[in-house]
Amino acid sequence: MSERIWTAGLVVIGDEILSGRTQDANIANSAKWLNVQGVRLAEVRIVADLMDQIVSAVNALRSAHDYVFTTGGIGPTHDDITVDAVAQAFGVPVVIHPRARAILADYYESRGGLNEGRLRMARVPKGAELIENATSGAPGIRMGNVFVLAGVPRIALNMMDALSGTLEGGRPMLSHTIGCSVAESEVAELLLKVERAHEGCQIGSYPFFRDGGVGANFVIRSTDPHQLNLCATALMEGLKAHGWHPVDGGI
Amino acid sequence: MSERIWTAGLVVIGDEILSGRTQDANIANSAKWLNVQGVRLAEVRIVADLMDQIVSAVNALRSAHDYVFTTGGIGPTHDDITVDAVAQAFGVPVVIHPRARAILADYYESRGGLNEGRLRMARVPKGAELIENATSGAPGIRMGNVFVLAGVPRIALNMMDALSGTLEGGRPMLSHTIGCSVAESEVAELLLKVERAHEGCQIGSYPFFRDGGVGANFVIRSTDPHQLNLCATALMEGLKAHGWHPVDGGI
Questions:
Q1: CB-CB under 8 Å, B40 with A20
Q2: Which of A59, A204, A231, B138 has the fewest CB atoms within 10 Å around its CB?
Q3: What is the predicted pLDDT for the residue at B173?
Q4: Where are the transmembrane segments (chains A, B) (predicted)?
Q5: What angle do CA B50, B53, B57 make, to 5 degrees?
């Protein structure tokens, strides 16, 4: 049974991530949210606040995937160039979106009014739609299959909420974790054997070193709950048969 | 004054990051470590455990940057294909490295001995050198300008330690942070003006929403300590002149 898999790419725009100053949270947040929408995050590129890098990442990912998300670079300051880059990627001019301007005028009415920097946040690639958010005035932007979200994780999550249920996707990816105090090198063959015996299931092995001992969590992923369950049972049984003590749910 | 800037790309290999299961730590760790080596992390790609994706990311980044680092996918299990991918990127076969085999044989002597999975970790692209690490037996690999590191952050850090001082680089990037309880949209023009007046300095603006209020940290970056200092002083003075209360060091 062949299943249509929907994939997304993510472009994280931000010198602050590349400098190591800020720990990114948008990758994990969007990965989890996309999964619930039935879309798989397939590739991420983190680029600097540079026009060429953003344009080429957006163009590479929008032709390779069903959806592209960007985070960061949509604020009011001079280093916020994501809108210009997405417009360039699509070959369209940047225009002021009347509804975005109205949202911002309303939001800033009691906060000192619109100024040049704030008005920057009403700029969109021509033809784009808005993604509203409740946290701050500035909306996100949808341009074709590209979704331009904020860099601040809380605002980005708000924009994802606003998009929930609007994306066409497939079945959500399910996962089942089994942990075991075993060196993964002891069970490599078993993992491969169990994976091959269960179509549509992948088993990832994630070792850890804790309290002086070694162990690993084995994460089985599938969109088919029945196959997932069979695979998890087979792995539990296989580990026990080798004398190990697996923990269902992971450790 | 034009300065040679050394750049690196990072390829993070791992379904567990793309699924949102694991919060990546290697990006921030390597960014900080590279900075101390005088090398700037310029681009990151996170790809799945898929041969084609890894090969094309490694090839794209190794031609664009002085150095490429990879993290993940060098363990003993069937989903660990980074070595094969790097070999394919360089067009060379995979061979057993005698020194890696000896290290692993030694390490596993008291841990059940070598087996097929463990011996996988002695495989390298033909012509590669080893990067030793003290945490686990398995070494990292250097192939041309590509450095293949472990996915487990503690082991990856160990391998970086082993490489400290061995990379040719430029002057480390310095930074100075100034925080202020101000909407960044109020000071966008000031930031641009101050940045333009100080050659070789970039100012990034990172807003936050905290305790119901807004604020931002402004991070000035330069490799020139004198220019950095002048720029920071000008920004502090500029913020004060507008009636704001900047905090040197950030908030």
A1: no
A2: A59
A3: 84
A4: none
A5: 140
Range A145-157 burial, b when 16+ CB lie within 10 A, else e: bbbbbbbbbebbb
In this prediction, residue A2 has a pLDDT band, given cuts at 50, 70 and 90, of low
Q: Are the C-beta atoms of A184 and A213 separated by less than 8 Å? A: no
Q: State whether B191 and A78 contact (CB < 8 Å).
A: yes
Cα B176 from chain centroid (whole Å):
20
Which option is the CATH number for A174-248: 3.30.70.360, 3.40.50.300, 1.10.150.170, 3.10.25.10?
3.30.70.360
Residues of A in contact with B46 (CB under 8 A): 27, 43-46
Q: Taking the domains of chain B in order of start, what are their residue ranges?
A: 6-163, 175-248
Q: Given an 8 Å threshold on Cβ–Cβ distance, is A75 in contact with B202? A: no
Whether A188 and B77 lie within 8 Å, measured CB to CB? yes
Residue by residue, DSSP assigns A27-68 as HHHHHHHHHHTTEEEEEEEEE-S-HHHHHHHHHHHHHHSSEE
Q: Say which amino acid occupies B117.
A: G
Q: Provide the shortest C-alpha distance from residue A219 to chain B (in Å).
A: 9
* Segment A20-63, tens digit of pLDDT: 989 999 999 999 999 989 999 999 999 999 999 999 999 999 99
pLDDT at B2: 64
CATH 3.40.980.10 fits domain A6-163: yes
How confident is the model over A200-226, as a mean pLDDT? 89
Question: Does B207 have pLDDT greater than 90?
Answer: no
N- to C-terminal Cα distance for chain A? 33
Q: Tell me which residue of A47, A41, A50 sits closest to A7, measured CA to CA.
A: A41
- Alpha-helical regions (H) of chain A: 15-18, 26-36, 51-64, 82-90, 98-108, 116-120, 153-163, 184-196, 225-241
A61 touches A86 (CB < 8 A): no
Chain A to chain B Cβ contacts (< 8 Å): 197
Q: What is the ipTM of this complex?
A: 0.87
* H runs (alpha helix) in A124-205: 153-163, 184-196
